[in-house]
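Quiz preparation item.
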């Protein structure tokens, strides 16, 4: 079998907020993609934040392994010797293209694409909210223009990054640009199951749905362009996102609402239509795409290919795949220091918090939002526990912390040991103590050179 073209579509802050995952929203094009191929119901990311999670998709390694311990526009960078997906595919003979956003590095030339169909300065040094060139409908049109002109040689890899559903700083806080997108009446939307039903949360949910419509349109434009160019049958299409919705208890948190993410893949005549309920991490997507492309997977990756879970059994290649029993996630820096590591199994979630912060961490864009204003007082009045344990079977929204429950002591200790073992195996810098900020080398000499002062 010849290696397929690969189109990787990815967006911001979506989680699994799609019709095909049970949300009360209208997303016909993304739902159609999932229905025609494979939908992963338990796909999780390595970090509930943008750049670190995206770095795992591009390297097959956890953020603390590849150096991406914080946001790209916060001056964190992937290690200089990391091997990225477009580089590896390019070396194997793929022509590589980038459309829209990437938000993995402030130096886009490091990504190794042959063609970049986006206007972006060499060093961005700005948050993603200013990336006007990455709006879904515009990005979809650019992809369609290139494909219709026959400007992609076989095999090709295209990274297609959409800005939506990222919050934007507005006059009264961070919102979803209600003036730019068509939004429903807040009274007509369903509340989010992991948050209380309050007016500010409903208004933000309504605004999200306006952005979501644009995202779905952009995906549909790309899918139509592949069909019209006669490339659909030979193209492996992937749609995913980097973490959960930009709402409290989701983005910035290791609850399932924060690390659970959509993943749909379509490869006509190769994939059977199915739903996969296995635990899958986004580091696994990296290995899987390389295997489909016939590229050797680097030995130091954290992910495992699930190709054998996707192919038709009749081709004789299924049988090597072993489902995960657990997966790991965490974060270190965002807009403040928030070191967390977590392990999730089929039934349980164990979270270890390494710093003293409020009960629920809110990223700045969430804190300064209508939804954040509804809960921040109660979330910030409590001290976050250092250890959290949840029974996901009986408590799917992770409300009841069982870490001190004597009936769950064995589960807690087992997962604690597994988490520590993983941290040791992956050389997690948290084992050595607090992780210094990215600008430490800038400010530390100034501190060292300051003269001692008399007095208290």
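Solution:
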């Amino acid at each position: 079998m010849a290696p397929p073209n690969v189109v990787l579509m990815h967006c911001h802050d979506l989680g699994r907020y799609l019709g095909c995952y049970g949300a009360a929203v209208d997303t016909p094009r993304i739902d159609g993609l999932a229905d025609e191929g494979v939908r992963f119901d338990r796909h999780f990311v390595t970090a509930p934040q943008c750049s670190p999670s995206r770095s795992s998709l591009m390297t097959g390694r956890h953020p603390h392994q590849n150096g991406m311990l914080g946001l790209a526009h916060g001056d964190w960078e992937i290690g200089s010797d990391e091997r990225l997906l477009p580089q590896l595919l390019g070396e194997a003979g793929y022509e590589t293209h980038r459309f829209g956003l990437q938000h993995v590095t402030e130096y886009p030339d490091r990504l190794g694409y042959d063609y970049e169909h986006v206007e972006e300065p060499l060093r961005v040094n700005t948050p993603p909210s200013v990336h006007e060139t990455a709006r879904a409908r515009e990005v979809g049109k650019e992809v369609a223009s290139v494909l219709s002109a026959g400007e992609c040689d076989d095999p090709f890899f295209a990274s297609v990054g959409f800005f939506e559903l990222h919050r934007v700083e507005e006059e009264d806080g961070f919102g979803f640009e209600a003036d730019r997108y068509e939004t429903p009446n807040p009274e007509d939307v369903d509340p989010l199951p992991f948050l209380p039903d309050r007016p500010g949360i409903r208004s933000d949910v309504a605004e999200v749905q306006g952005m979501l419509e644009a995202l779905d349109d952009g995906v549909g434009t790309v899918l139509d362009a592949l069909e019209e160019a006669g490339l659909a049958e030979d193209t492996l299409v992937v749609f995913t996102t980097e973490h959960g919705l930009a709402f409290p208890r989701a983005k910035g948190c290791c609850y399932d609402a924060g690390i659970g993410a959509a993943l749909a893949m379509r490869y006509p005549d190769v994939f059977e239509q199915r739903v996969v309920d296995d635990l899958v991490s986004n580091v696994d997507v990296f290995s899987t795409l390389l295997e489909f492309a016939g590229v050797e997977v680097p030995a130091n990756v954290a992910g495992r290919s699930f190709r054998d879970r996707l192919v038709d059994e009749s081709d004789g290649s299924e049988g090597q795949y072993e489902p995960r029993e657990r997966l790991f996630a965490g974060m270190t820096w965002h807009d403040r220091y928030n070191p967390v590591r977590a392990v999730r199994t089929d039934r349980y979630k164990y979270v270890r918090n390494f710093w003293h912060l409020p009960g629920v961490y809110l990223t700045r864009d969430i804190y300064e939002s209508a939804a954040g204003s509804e809960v921040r007082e109660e979330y910030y009045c409590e001290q976050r526990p250092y250890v959290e344990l949840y029974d996901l079977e009986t408590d799917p929204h992770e409300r009841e912390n069982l870490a001190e429950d004597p009936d769950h002591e064995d589960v807690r200790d087992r997962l604690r040991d597994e988490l520590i073992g993983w941290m040791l195996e992956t050389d997690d810098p948290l084992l050595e103590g607090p992780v210094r900020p990215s600008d430490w080398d800038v400010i530390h000499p100034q501190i060292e050179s300051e003269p001692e002062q008399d007095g208290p």
